[in-house]
Write a structure and sequence with these properties.
heterotrimer, A mainly alpha (219), B alpha/beta (241), C mainly alpha (227), A: 219 residues, mainly alpha, MetI-like fold, 81% helix, flat, C: 227 residues, 9 helices, transmembrane transporter activity (chain A), transmembrane (chain A), MetI-like (chain A), Amino acid ABC transporter permease (chain A), transmembrane helix (chain A)
Chain lengths: 219, 241, 227
C-alpha cells in the first residue's frame, strides 16, 4: 500500500537516531559539568550558594521538561536571535540534567560517613583537601550506578525535543508515519530503537549497583 | 607550663550542658585515662581538645597553641594533637600505606618519597609493615585500628587523643591495640584516653580522671582512684557498692 | 533585548488555562490511582504470581521504563487503531499514564517488598492467613509504607510528564498554553505562566501525597509528625 519497505523505514529512523545519540551525549556531558559546579555551590560553605542551588533544583524538578524546552526556545528568541531547535534543545536538556545530577551526587556526598570528615579534620586537612582527597573519591564510587541510571532519563528526555522541531528519532517517527500511514509499525520500531539505546544503560546501572552492594558487605 | 591546659571548659548541646567547667592540666609524657558512664561528657571533652566540637566557654591550649574556631588556629592545634577514633575511620579507598601518607603529603607538603618512608616506619612501629598495600577492608578491626594509630603518629604529634579505641573491637583483638598504646606510653608519648579498660588504666596510666555529669568528679593516680575512691558515684561506677 | 513583556492576555484567557488545569488534574488523579493499582498488581505478579506471568510482567516493566512516554503515547493513540483499538485523546492519554506509572510503580513497590524480611511471610502463613491475605497485610502494606516517598516522587514525575499529552491534542494545561500562544503570539509569557502553574501543581501534589501517606499509614504518620 505504500512505497516504503520496512528496510526504508528502519534506515530512516536509524539515521535520525544518530541525532538522539548526539543530543543525549551533549546533554549528559554538559549536564554533568553544570551539575558538578552546582554541587560545589550546594555543599560549599557559603549561604547564598546552597539556597540558589536548592531553588534551581526545585524549579527544574518541579516543572515539565517540555515547558523548559518551550521557555528555552522562545526565551532565547527574546534576545533577538533566531534560535535553532538544536540550540534550545541542548540548553534546556543540559540545565535539566544538571538539576537531577547535582541532587544525585549530593546524596552520594552526604552518604559518606561523618567519621571520614572527622578523621581527616583531626589530621589537619582543610575543607578543600578533605573534599579532594577523602570525600569525593568515595562519593564518586557510589555515584556511578545512579548516574548511569539517570543517563536513561536523558535519552528518553530527548524525545520531547521533537516538539520544538528538533529532528531526532521521535520527530523522524512522526515524519515517516505521515509518509507511510503505518503508525503501528513505525512507532513500534521507534520504541524498539529507544529500547536498544536505553536498556543496556539500565542494565549496567543495575549490575554496577549490585557489585557495589557486594563490595560494601565485605567491609 | 603544662603541655595541655584545659581551663573552665563548658559545652552545651541545646539545653543540655554536657561539660560544666572542666579543668585539667596535662604534663608532657603523662598518660591520662578518662573514665565515667556514657553521657558523662568524656568523649565530648576529647573531641573539644581536637576542635571537632566548639566550646562555649573556657579555653584549651596545647603547647601554647590556643584552640580558636578559625581554620589556621585549628590546623596548628591539630598538627600537635592526633586523634584515634572508636570506629577507626580509615579512608576505605586508600591502602594502609596511602592512609598514612595522605595527610603528610597534603597537609605538611612532605615529598612523596619521604612520606612513604615515614609511612613504612610507622606501620613497622605498630607491627604492620607487611600490610602497606592492603586496603582497610582486607584488615581485621585490630589491624585497622593500628593503622589509624600509625596514621596519627606519622604527623608527629606531641600528644594523642584516644576515644574508646578498643570499644568496637572483638575481645580477642583488644590486646594487640593496647600493646601498641603501652609501647607509645613507655616511649614518652603524652596520651589522653577515654577508655573502659580499667586494668589497662590501672597498669599504664599516670593519672585517672573520673567524670560524672559533666564535671571532673575525682582525679588522681590510679592507685588512689581505684583503691580508695572517695565518692559514692565512683564507688558505684567501679562496682564497689 | 528590546522586548516588552505583556501579561494582559491573562485577563481574557484565564478560563482557558483553568480548563487546562482541570484536565491535567483529572489525568493525574485517574492516572495516579489506576497506575498505582496496576503497579501493585504487577508487583504481586512478580513476587508471588504464577510462573508464566512473571516474564510477561518483567518484559512490560522493562519496555516501558526504557522508552519515552511520548512514544508510548503515540503508539497507543496512533498505532493501536491498526489493531482495531480506537479511543479518544483523553482515553489514550489516561491509558498511557496508567501504563507508564504502572511500570515504574511495580519496580518501586518490588524494591519495597524485597526489603521485607522473609520471616514475615512465614509468620503470616503460620498464623493461617491465605497467600493473598499475607501478601496484603504482611508484605504489601509495610512495603508501600517504606517506599511511599519514592512512589510519591514518581507520581509527581508522571504529572509533569503529562505535558506531552498535548501532542495528541488532549486539552490539558500545555494544550491551553499552545492555544493561547497561537492566538496572542505571546509565547514566552504564555509558557512562563504555565510553567509557574505546573510548579504550583507539583508542590500541591507533593503535599497531597504526604497527606495521603499520613492517612493510609497512620503509625508512620504519627512518628514523622512528632519529629
Amino acid at each position: 500500500m505504500s512505497d516504503f519497505t520496512t528496510w526504508d523505514i528502519l534506515r530512516n529512523l536509524l539515521l535520525a537516531a544518530r541525532w538522539t545519540v548526539v543530543l543525549s551525549v551533549v546533554s549528559f556531558v554538559g549536564g554533568a559539568i553544570v551539575g558538578a559546579l552546582l554541587l560545589f555551590m550546594r555543599i560549599g560553605k557559603g549561604r547564598a550558594g546552597p539556597a540558589f542551588v536548592k531553588a534551581y533544583v526545585e524549579i527544574f524538578q518541579g516543572t515539565p521538561l517540555l515547558m523548559q524546552l518551550f521557555l528555552a526556545f522562545f526565551g532565547l528568541g527574546l534576545f533577538g536571535i533566531d534560535v535553532p531547535a538544536w540550540l534550545a534543545a541542548g540548553v534546556a536538556l543540559i540545565l535539566w540534567s544538571a538539576a537531577f545530577l547535582t541532587e544525585i551526587w549530593r546524596g552520594c556526598v552526604e552518604a559518606i560517613a561523618r567519621g571520614q570528615w572527622e578523621a581527616s579534620s583531626s589530621l589537619g586537612m582543610g575543607y578543600v583537601q578533605q573534599m579532594r582527597y577523602v570525600i569525593l573519591p568515595q562519593a564518586l564510587r557510589i555515584a556511578v550506578p545512579p548516574t548511569v541510571g539517570f543517563s536513561v532519563q536523558v535519552v528518553k528526555g530527548t524525545a520531547l525535543t521533537s516538539i520544538i522541531g528538533f529532528v531526532e528519532l521521535s520527530k523522524a517517527g512522526t515524519i515517516v508515519t505521515n509518509a507511510t500511514f503505518e503508525p503501528f509499525k513505525v512507532y513500534g520500531i521507534v520504541a524498539l530503537i529507544y529500547f536498544c539505546l536505553c536498556w543496556p544503560l539500565s542494565k549496567s546501572s543495575q549490575i554496577l549497583e549490585r557489585k557495589l552492594n557486594v563490595a560494601h558487605r565485605n567491609h | 607550663m603544662s603541655l595541655i591546659e584545659i581551663t573552665e571548659v563548658k559545652k552545651r548541646f541545646g539545653d543540655n550542658e554536657v561539660l560544666k567547667g572542666i579543668n585539667i592540666d596535662v604534663e608532657p609524657g603523662e598518660v591520662i585515662a578518662i573514665i565515667g558512664k556514657s553521657g558523662s561528657g568524656k568523649s565530648t571533652l576529647l573531641r573539644c581538645i581536637n576542635g571537632l566540637e566548639t566550646i562555649d566557654d573556657g579555653s584549651i591550649s596545647v603547647a601554647g597553641a590556643q584552640l580558636l574556631p578559625d581554620e589556621i588556629h585549628l590546623k596548628a592545634l591539630r598538627l600537635k594533637v592526633g586523634m584515634i577514633f572508636q570506629q577507626f575511620n580509615l579512608f576505605p579507598h586508600l591502602t594502609a600505606g596511602r592512609n598514612v601518607m595522605l595527610s603528610q603529603m597534603v597537609v605538611k607538603k612532605t615529598p612523596r618519597g619521604e612520606a612513604e618512608a615515614m609511612a613504612k616506619k610507622m606501620l613497622e612501629r605498630v607491627g604492620l609493615g607487611h600490610k602497606f598495600d592492603a586496603y582497610p577492608d582486607e584488615l581485621s578491626g585490630g589491624q585497622q585500628q593500628r593503622v589509624a594509630i600509625a596514621r596519627a603518629l606519622a604527623m608527629q604529634p606531641i600528644a594523642l587523643l584516644c576515644d574508646e579505641i578498643t570499644s568496637a573491637l572483638d575481645p580477642e583483638l583488644v590486646n594487640e591495640v593496647l600493646a601498641v598504646v603501652k609501647e607509645l606510653a613507655s616511649e614518652g608519648m603524652t596520651l589522653l584516653m577515654v577508655t573502659h579498660e580499667m586494668r589497662f588504666a590501672r597498669d599504664v596510666c599516670s593519672r585517672v580522671v573520673f567524670m560524672h555529669q559533666g564535671r571532673v568528679h575525682e582525679i588522681g593516680p590510679p592507685g588512689e582512684v581505684f583503691a580508695e575512691p572517695r565518692t559514692p558515684e565512683l564507688k558505684q561506677f567501679l562496682g564497689m557498692l | 533585548m528590546h522586548y516588552t513583556f505583556d501579561f494582559g492576555w491573562l485577563l481574557e484567557y484565564w478560563p482557558v488555562l483553568l480548563k487546562g488545569i482541570g484536565i491535567t488534574v483529572e489525568l493525574t488523579l485517574v492516572g495516579g490511582v489506576l497506575g498505582v493499582s496496576l503497579g501493585v498488581a504487577c508487583a504481586w505478579a512478580r513476587a508471588l504470581g504464577p510462573g508464566w506471568l512473571r516474564p510477561i510482567v518483567t518484559a512490560y516493566v522493562e519496555m516501558i521504563r526504557n522508552t519515552p512516554f511520548l512514544i508510548q503515547l503515540f503508539f497507543i493513540f496512533f498505532g493501536l487503531p491498526a489493531l482495531g483499538i480506537r479511543m479518544n485523546e483523553l482515553e489514550a492519554a489516561n491509558l498511557a499514564m496508567v501504563i507508564n506509572l504502572g511500570a515504574y510503580g511495580c519496580e518501586i513497590i518490588r524494591a519495597g517488598i524485597q526489603a521485607t524480611p522473609k520471616g514475615q511471610f512465614e509468620a503470616g502463613a503460620s498464623l493461617g492467613m491465605s497467600r493473598i491475605q499475607t501478601f496484603w497485610h504482611v508484605i504489601l502494606i509495610p512495603a508501600l509504607q517504606r517506599i511511599w516517598p519514592a512512589l510519591s516522587s514518581q507520581i509527581v514525575i508522571v504529572m509533569l510528564g503529562s505535558a506531552a499529552v498535548s501532542q495528541i491534542a488532549a486539552e490539558d494545561l500545555t494544550f491551553a498554553a499552545n492555544f493561547i500562544q497561537s492566538r496572542t503570539f505571546r509565547a514566552f509569557e504564555a509558557y512562563f505562566v504555565t510553567t509557574l502553574i505546573y510548579l504550583a501543581l507539583a508542590v500541591l501534589l507533593r503535599q497531597l501525597l504526604r497527606g495521603v501517606g499520613w492517612t493510609i499509614f497512620p503509625r508512620r504518620g504519627a512518628a514523622s509528625r512528632a519529629r
